[in-house]
Amino acid sequence: MRPNEWKKYKREVFFTMGTSNFLGDLGGRNKQGTDYSPADINFNQSRAAIGFGARYKLARAVNVAAKFSYLNVRGDDSKTQDIYRNNRNLNFKSNVFEMSTRIEFGYQSTKRGGSKYGIKRNYGRMKNITHNLYGFVGVGAFYYNPKGLNAQGTWVALKPLHTEGQGLDGGPKQYSHFSLCIPMGGYYKLTINKIWSLGVEFSFRKTLTDYMDDVSGTYYDPNKLAAAYGPMSAQMSDPSKGRLDPNSPFYSATLPGGDGQSAQRGDRQKDSYMSLEVSVSYIFKKQRRSARLRSKF
Do residues 273 and 193 lie in contact, with contact meaning Cβ atoms separated by under 8 Å? Predict the structure, then answer.
């Protein structure tokens, strides 16, 4: 590719499809949680992710992009063999609708073949293939609505149940269905004939909420929850399987301690989610302006 030829190919649209995973309080691997590390991903909770967006090239190796994404995320304590999370027995799922913008930095190179040395037959087909490797960081806004599976096998919206005592004396304030996130990641794509691209993209999002899974702080008095928001609130707040080993420090883990302090239900680290997707994109070539015919008369 000639030094300034990239200027003819600045605009691009793309479509992505793949899988999504959640990193938060619920679910995880068959071991103690690892502070929201990808090493704690429970792959049997992977769900669909799709997206589409547009990209504009500012320089040969600098782009800006905007993307809309739909993801389904979930976590389920019953799917992990970690004794403490499994006993807690909380679960959730949520559709996530995200709009983000990002800046991308990377490397782009083109291999060219030719007839020199008689190698055209072997490498000529590579002359219009471009390899692209980019990293990115940005900011996004998303909507989420956690739902939990109750004892009757029905998915119910969790926010209206105030499961940690939101709005009650000593409870936290109610959370919003909307939050911000910081997407970061990278992608590789192979561009053919300077127009069509096929690639793979990984994106990790750190959010500014700890309630994607409706879990953040401590257990609230179930009797007060039932009185204020109904019996379903108390049920969904604490569906634990029962007491653990009496010799364990987690004995009666969901009940207040001897000092009256509420038992821990989750931690206060912000939630994260991620996606791994394949992408297909189309690049628009800038059309050359037609020269005007000038009359000699």
Answer: no
